[in-house]
Amino acid sequence: MEKISLYYFNLGKPTLGRGENLKLFFVDAGLEHDYIRFNRETEWPEMREEIIKDGYYAGSAPYIKMGNKIIGRTVPTMRYISTKLGNKYHGSTDEESYLLDVVSDVTNDWFESIKKLYLGSEEEKKRHVEVITPNWLKKFDNYYSCYKDGPYLLGNKITYPDFLVYHLLDDDQCLQRLDEYPNLKAFAKAFEERPNIKEYLISLK
């Protein structure tokens, strides 16, 4: 596979935002890649104009470049790369594929709600921590109970939504708040112990 260049905003905290989903995905898959961060205010407008001219009409970040191809949107990019890897991170049946589609779609709603944690008023931040986050944790703990042999969404096989969910736990600052959500707690522990992921997470400390 061609070398990948991943592009995303520099948001201060190295792992904050959607770009980290793809970073974790590429790390786990052992794919050679560069991670290029840029300023949203000063660099992005010109970059966005250029990628739209080059045919990436969504004009959004994160996106990747592979040779002369520009591929974007987080979940479609994951599916594209998984397909290139022989469906390594896909489901094996229609039912499994449906579950992956549903969970990856619902993660978008969770991601949007997290913005209140960083950009909301003090009252909105408090409500997010005390009400909104527990609701999401309960919902996703239920999803992770669908396959009893765990710890991943499809049991013992990791798939692309697992990267989305783990990173939401990180962005929502609740990796240390999982005692009441045993399925998510087991998932996060297993995810962090994956060899490539473990090495990467250590490098962030």
Automatic annotation (TrEMBL):
Record keywords, A-Z: Transferase
Every GST C-terminal domain range: 93-205
Gene3D superfamilies: 1.20.1050.10, Glutaredoxin
Keyword Calcium recorded: no
Pfam families: GST_C_3 (PF14497)
GO biological process, one term: glutathione metabolic process
An annotated Gene Ontology molecular function: glutathione transferase activity
PANTHER family reported for this sequence: GLUTATHIONE S-TRANSFERASE (PTHR11571)
Record protein name field: Glutathione S-transferase
Species whose genome carries this gene: Rhizopus microsporus var. microsporus
